[in-house]
Amino acid sequence: MKSIDPRISQKIAFSLLFLATLFVLVPVGLIVLVIIKNGLGAITWEFLTTAPRNGMREGGILPAIVGTSCLVVGAMSVAIPLGVLSAIYLNEYARKNFLTRVIKLAIINLAGIPSVVYGLFGMGLFVIFLKFGASILAGALTLAIMNLPVIITATREALAGVPQSFREVSLSLGASKWQTIRHVVLPNAIPGILTGIILEISRAAGETAPILFTVAAFYLPGLPTSVFDQVMALPMHLYAISTQIPNIGLDVRYATALVLLGLVFGVNSIATIIRAKLRRKKAW
């Protein structure tokens, strides 16, 4: 039986991969284009810098933008240090035994838990038990816990990807284990760590269920003054005006979605640029 010409098989494989890429990118591109087409006209300076009024049928979405930004910054401020330090311990210090294998498996499984479960957990622990009430603090901590599994997993994979020879050379030159991790392992693992962080920034900004139980308010015209205040958030606001507010313009709904998309895209772009610069500095 005649074998297929390698050049033909290569072309077939390339075509299949190209079609698979198009199958993913085209729907995403169409969604973004529809949101831009229907929402761009409604975005004005007033829309971005004023509070909603007249039953949220007029005015802007400034409180929701500020609330979302507070929640994302708060969640990442907690999740990134805890996630990275936990991953360093598990990958560099913890002994390879049954207990650590169970812990790693549990972390992977926690990444697949529905966000509404994290919301109920956050309400029970932070809102009721610790008496934080429905507040930025309770919402940010809930989002941080939800983001931890992915950040820990991504960081562990990035640390494990650094060649063992780098560690051996550093230790042989008299550096301590922590000095080796800090000056050799982490700088080479940062691009991979940032990948997990970028994914979780998007998730933190776009989640509705966790903040619904812990922080989000239906309508608050003022801006927060403390971490114990409730806030409006873009995902919750978008849900509210789409399902609870009659006779609101479709362009306002799309404009709100476009602002949320732009906020996530802007933060992700900055993180991606930083990751690209750090990746160019890698020694391998």
Care to describe what's here?
This protein is mostly helical and 284 residues long. The protein has a single domain (61-280), classed as Orthogonal Bundle (MetI-like fold), CATH 1.10.3720.10. It is built from eleven helices and two strands, in the order ααββααααααααα. The chain has helices at residues 6-39, 45-49, 62-93, 98-110, 115-129, 136-160, 164-172, 177-206, 209-214, 234-243, 250-280; strands at 52-53, 58-59. Helix 3 packs parallel to helix 6, helix 4 packs across helix 6 and helix 7 runs antiparallel to helix 8. The longest helix is centred in the first third of the chain and has 34 residues, at 6-39. The protein is globular and about 70 Å long. The mean pLDDT is 88.
Q: What are the salient characteristics of this protein?
A:
284 residues, mainly alpha, MetI-like fold, two-stranded antiparallel ribbon, 2 strands
- Write the CATH homologous superfamily: MetI-like
Q: Total number of helical segments? A: 11
Shape by Cα distribution: globular
> Runs with pLDDT <50, length 5+?
none
| CA-CA gap between termini | 44 Å
What topology, given as strand order, has the largest sheet?
1-2
List the domain count as a whole number: 1
**Order of SSEs:** HHEEHHHHHHHHH
Strand content range: under 5%
Rg (C-alpha, Å):
23 Å
Q: Report the helical percentage.
A: over 70%
| Number of separate strands | 2
**CATH architecture tag:** Orthogonal Bundle
CATH-derived topology: MetI-like fold
CATH class: Mainly Alpha
Whole-number average pLDDT? Answer: 88
Content-based structural category: mainly alpha
